[in-house]
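Worked problem 6 (solution included).
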Amino acid sequence: MTSQVWTDPAVIKWSQLLLNSFRRWTGRELLERVGDPAYQAHALFLSPFVVVSHGVDEDPLLNYGNQMALDLWGLSRDQFMSTPSRLTTEPINQAEREWMLEQAKVHGYLDTYRGVRITSTGRRFLVDNARIWNVMNTQEQRVGQAASFSQWTWLT
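Solution. The predicted structure is:
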């Protein structure tokens, strides 16, 4: 397990942006918001569902993955955070992924997304009922996109 990454001030801050943005777009909480921001970052990192995000660069790198995401993709935190977001999908599915991200960008939020992803070892899985949302900073500027899901089926 990654050693207490949730204690990093940058992770605490990003976790708050993830949680606040999810609430902004959906009117719901991604997880129960109890305790201080550090406690919430800990809860998010150890949540029983996948949470991932990337920034707004042209070819963004993944910038957050909770323990469930790291385990699912089979990567260390350092490996995960040096992975271009597009590489979570096989090349054949990247156009569909781009369409989905654009829909979320335009509308702020996309619910019940379904798509095929690929792990670091090439194992494919089908994600069901993923939620994708724009991550906004305190000045209401889009600083990334995030996704969360708890349902997937192994394909290979």
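Discussion: The mean pLDDT is 91.
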